[in-house]
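BACKBONE GEOMETRY TOKENS:
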Amino acid sequence: MFKQRGRGNLVAGMTTYELRAISFGLQIVALLIFVLSLIVLKATKSKREGVIKHGKIVTGGYALAVLSVFYMLYSAYNLIITGNAPSVIYIHGLFGAITLALGFIFVINRWNWKTRENMRIQLALWTLTFSGGMLLYLIFIGKFT
């Protein structure tokens, strides 16, 4: 049902399928950057220096995740308007919005109770949202029904 290659040219000759693949690729790179930031945090001898490096790396990952959201919003809007949206898209969108909002608060460093526990909650939310996105991607390319 969703396996179609797209509805013509959207951006610089790209189809919906190609934009979906780019968005998913950005999310995978963001995940790898988040993992790298945790490795840097644990591997750095100075705790303060490790936290600073971790924060800078995570900010880069967050920026990539935000870039990928533009296509997701476009795609979700079209699917909802046409009535073809799978139910998981609503759950993914809700958790994604919460995750991005909390991530923004962490990135701009305005949350005075930014603790390890709260960051673990953020990590769990991001993992849940990423998993939902993987499920949606597999549904859209026809690998999962």
Observations:
- The mean pLDDT is 83.
- Helices lie at 16-43, 47-82, 88-107, 116-140.
- The CA atoms of residues 75 and 81 lie 10 Å apart.
- The radius of gyration is 17 Å.
